[in-house]
Amino acid sequence: MSLPYYDEIWSHPEKQLREHLENVGKIAKSLAEAIPLNLPECEVLPEVAYLVGVYHDLGKGTPFFQEYIREEDSDRKARLKNKAETKHSLISATATYFAVEEYLKNKDFSGELTSFLPIASFIAVRRHHTNLQTAFEDLRLDSGEVLRKQVENLYYEYLSFLPYWSTVSEKLKTIPDKWPLRKRSLVQWLKEYSGVLSYFIQHLLYSLLLDTDKHDATVGPHLERKSLSTDIVESYRRSRKFDEPQKEIDTLRNEIYQIVINQVKTIDLDHDHILSLSAPTGSGKTLTALAFAIELRNRIIEEKKYVPRIIYSLPFLSIIDQNAKVVEEVFKEGIGQDPTSDLFLIHHHLSDYTYKEEDTEYGVDESEILIEGWDSEIIITTFVQLFHTLFTNRNRAIRKFHKLAGSIIILDEIQSFPHKYWLLFRETAEAMRKYFNTYFILSTATQPAIFENPKELLIEKERYFKSFKRTQVTLDFKSPKTITELANEFKESLTLNRKSTLVVLNTVGAAEDFFNSVKEHLKEIGYEIYYLSSYIVPSERLKRIEKIKKSLNKKVVISTQLIEAGVDIDLERVIRDLGPMDSINQVAGRANRNLNVELGEVEVIMLINEKSHRPFYSYIYDPVLIDNTKRILESHSVVGEEKFLRLANQYYQQVLKTMSDDISQGYLRAINLLDYEEIGKFELIEEKDQKIDIFVELDDEATKIWRQYQETVEKIRDLRKRKQRFLEIRGKFYSYVISVFTQKASRNLPPEVSGIRFISRNQLNEYYDLETGYTTKGENPFW
Question: Using one digit for the tens of pLDDT, what is the confidence trace for 443-460?
Answer without folding.
Answer: 998 899 999 999 999 998
